[in-house]
Each structure stands twice: as C-alpha cells, then as structure tokens.
Write a structure and sequence with these properties.
Elements (H helix, E strand, L loop, with lengths): L2 H4 L3 H18 L3 E4 L9 E4 L4 E10 L4 E5 L15 E8 L7 E6 H17 L14 E5 H9 L2 E2 L7 H7 L13
Parallel strand pairs: 3-5
Antiparallel strand pairs: 1-2, 2-3, 4-7, 5-6, 6-8
C-alpha cells in the first residue's frame, strides 16, 4: 500500500470519505447518520422520509489504485447483503483543494465483481508460475481493471445525478444496468 496508509493515516482516510459522503447527503437535504465505527452492515444510513438506504463507504487516497476489502471469517465480503437499498460509495479522495470522485454502486454489483475477479486471479499463475493463494483474504477493486465499469456509476455533485438522487432513487437490484424507482 502506498504512502499515507503506511504512515498510519488509514483511519483518517476512511473517516474523510465517510464524512465527505455525509456532507454531500446533508447538503442535499437527505437525513443521514453515521453508524458506530466498524459496524458490520453499513457506514451511513440515509433517508428522504420515504425510502431508507444503507451506504457502505470505501475510500482510497490519490496514491493508491484500488479500494480494498477483507473477507470475513464466514467467507463473505459484505455482511447482511441486501438486494435493495444497499450501496457502496467508493470515494476517490483527492488532494487538498481538489474535488473528490464518488462512485455509487449497488453492493451486490461490487460483491460480484470482487468475487469474479478473485476467482480469475486464483486460476492465473503468479510470479514464476507459482499458484496464487486461494486463502488470501484481500479483495481489491482496482481502478485499472474496473475503472471503465465504475465510470457508469460516477456521481456528479454539480449536476442532476447527485449522490442523494442516485442513492435514494436507484433500486439497488442488479440486472446488468442501472435501475431507478420513479
């Protein structure tokens, strides 16, 4: 891992991403609340009074190319995964004075991408033909691999596709395309 993580700033980076998402939701008139630190099911609960969604925030700093998760003891990447109203907001934390990038994706989509990518990685030979370790617990959503797919989920905070509109209108169901209520 790059720079800031090794310097012990991982918690600060994660907090910055969660607070950035909270700020955007609150600015847009959405009631949002942070879950207790390290809550297993979500980081933010957001509602517009008619619909409530769970948001799992994953943040990366500018020095790093991917968002990383660790597999749980039960083998799952995400706890209590729901088919509706369950989102990952991947935050690409920019440098000071630069705008962050937000990618709002149904958690089931991210779960499928990570599982498929890991299955492919395990089958591919590693350095000097040595097999990859199937018990590896890291799952990484690499920008260089998934950036094109993720771009379809990018939220622009200055246009109609704001974080609040996307999160509270997207159904979260994954059928290959983005689905919206209403």
């Amino acid at each position: 891992m790059g720079g800031r993580i090794k310097r012990g700033e991982g918690t600060l980076i994660g907090d910055a991403g969660e607070f950035a998402v909270m700020s955007e939701l609150l600015k847009q008139g959405i009631m949002a609340a942070l879950a207790p630190r390290n809550a297993p099911w979500f980081d933010i609960l957001a509602t517009n009074g008619q619909r409530t969604v769970r948001i799992r925030v994953k943040t990366k700093s500018v020095e790093y190319d991917g968002w990383q998760w660790n597999v749980r003891k039960d083998g799952a990447i995400f706890s209590n995964l729901s088919a509706d109203g369950d989102f990952v907001v991947a935050v690409d934390l920019a440098g000071v004075g630069q705008p962050n990038r937000y990618f709002i994706m149904p958690t089931r989509t991210v779960d499928r991408w990570l599982k498929d990518d890991f299955a492919h990685w395990v089958k591919e030979p590693g350095v000097r033909g040595k097999p990859h370790d199937p018990s590896n617990k890291r799952r990484i959503l690499w920008w260089r691999k998934f950036g094109e797919r993720m771009t379809a989920y990018r939220a622009s905070m200055t246009h109609r596709q704001t974080l609040a509109v996307i999160v509270l209108r997207r159904t979260g169901r994954t059928k290959g395309t983005h689905e919206y209520d209403g």
